[in-house]
């Protein structure tokens, strides 16, 4: 390890004090001695290493102050020069070390300065203690500034993490919305297209109704996707979100497509706010999608009721009465995960599973804000 270099400021201060001592002895004194000049240089020189070796500076300066009275002085009084150096050293120690080291340095330097003087000078301890106090204040302020800077960096990191997480959650939300819309539309299209194909020769009127329901579902999907895109734009207040009334419209379309769907919904559900109503709608929509995929042709019973301070949505379908839709392996469970995630954002509960007769039931409990 190399020897640390003195700070530039310390070198300038040290050179200035040494120059003052030399000039004082050379031009003011009438009977200066080499020893007097040497002690003055040692005392002043202690400043040059106060930042790199403060303990050495205190020790050397104190020794020089104690022994300097043995020399004859003609220029600057070593006590006067010493108190300046001692104050600088006390300031340095207080700024860099704790109370114990600061107190020890103050005592040593004060005693050394008073020893150098021919009589007790109250100004010496006041100057040294005052300099130590200033150093301690600056140390405390620097510590506060460092803590604030560190906290600022932590806040910046947290802000970046929050921004990334917000983007991730928004992407997940959009993905869930698109899944709910598109998956429902595709499921109905596949089921109705298959029904229309089978009924073309047997019941042309029913086949036409199936094709008509396909057009209605596609139009509804387009409307919801358009609303979702508009919601991401600059004027989301103009967007109409899916709500409780659209549950009735959704069930009506399913019935028009000759699907066996029953709805039970009490009037107080209409009092839900927009986000709560949208959550109920998405649960019904996704549950219908799953029923069409896994149990095409089965009876589907939907209830949307208010239970105290919660809204309860139950969608129950029986076992598939005939052939599968071919969509049962599509989606990978994203719909169920989407419903559960949506309910968690409200602090709600979600459960789904098979029934005893071979069907499926979804139950969602949504706490209400009012």
TrEMBL record:
Enzyme class, spelled out: transferase
Any Gene Ontology CC annotation: membrane
Lineage top rank: taxon: Bacteria
CDD domains membership: HATPase_UhpB-NarQ-NarX-like (cd16917)
Gene Ontology terms, MF aspect: ATP binding; phosphorelay sensor kinase activity; protein dimerization activity
Catalytic activity: ATP + protein L-histidine = ADP + protein N-phospho-L-histidine
Signal peptide: none
KW Cell wall biogenesis/degradation (keyword) present: no
Gene3D superfamilies: 1.20.5.1930, Histidine kinase-like ATPase, C-terminal domain (3.30.565.10)
Domain Signal transduction histidine kinase subgroup 3 dimerisation and phosphoacceptor residue range list: 170-232
Cited InterPro entries: HATPase_C_sf, Sensor_HK_TwoCompSys, Sig_transdc_His_kin_sub3_dim/P
Keywords in alphabetical order: ATP-binding, Kinase, Membrane, Nucleotide-binding, Phosphoprotein, Transferase, Transmembrane, Transmembrane helix, Two-component regulatory system
Enzyme Commission numbers on file: 2.7.13.3
Spans through the membrane: 50-67, 79-99, 119-138
PANTHER family hit by this protein: NITRATE/NITRITE SENSOR PROTEIN NARX-RELATED, NITRATE_NITRITE SENSOR PROTEIN NARQ
Name recorded for this polypeptide: histidine kinase
Species of the source: Nocardioides marmorisolisilvae
């Amino acid at each position: 390890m190399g020897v640390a270099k003195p700070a530039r400021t310390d070198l300038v201060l040290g050179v200035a004090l040494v120059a003052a001592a030399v000039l004082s002895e050379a031009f003011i004194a009438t009977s200066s001695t080499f020893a007097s000049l040497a002690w003055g240089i040692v005392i002043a020189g202690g400043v040059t290493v106060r930042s790199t070796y403060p303990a050495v500076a205190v020790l050397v300066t104190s020794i020089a102050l104690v022994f300097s009275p043995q020399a004859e002085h003609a220029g600057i009084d070593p006590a006067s020069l010493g108190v300046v150096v001692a104050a600088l050293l006390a300031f340095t120690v207080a700024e860099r070390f704790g109370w114990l080291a600061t107190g020890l340095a103050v005592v040593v330097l004060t005693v050394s300065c008073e020893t150098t003087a021919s009589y007790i000078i109250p100004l010496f301890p006041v100057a040294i203690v005052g300099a130590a106090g200033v150093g301690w204040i600056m140390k405390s302020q620097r510590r506060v500034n460092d803590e604030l800077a560190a906290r600022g960096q932590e806040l910046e990191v947290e802000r970046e993490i929050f921004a990334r997480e917000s983007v991730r959650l928004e992407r997940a939300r959009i993905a869930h919305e698109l899944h709910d819309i598109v998956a429902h539309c595709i499921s109905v299209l596949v089921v109705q297209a298959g029904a229309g194909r089978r009924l073309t020769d047997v019941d042309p009127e029913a086949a036409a109704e199936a094709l008509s329901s396909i057009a209605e579902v596609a139009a509804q999907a387009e409307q919801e996707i358009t609303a979702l895109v508009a919601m991401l734009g600059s004027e989301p207040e103009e967007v109409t979100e899916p709500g409780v009334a659209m549950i009735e419209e959704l069930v009506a379309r399913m019935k028009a497509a000759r699907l066996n769907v029953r709805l039970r919904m009490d009037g107080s559900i209409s009092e839900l706010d927009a986000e709560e109503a949208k959550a109920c709608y998405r649960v019904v929509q996704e549950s219908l999608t799953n029923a069409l995929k896994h149990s095409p042709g089965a009876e589907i019973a939907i209830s949307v009721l208010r239970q105290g301070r919660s809204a309860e949505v139950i969608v129950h379908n029986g076992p598939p009465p005939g052939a599968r839709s071919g969509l049962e392996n599509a989606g990978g469970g994203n719909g169920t995960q989407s419903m559960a995630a949506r309910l968690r954002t409200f602090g709600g509960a979600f459960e789904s599973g098979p029934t005893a007769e071979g069907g499926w039931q979804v139950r969602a409990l949504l706490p209400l804000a009012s």
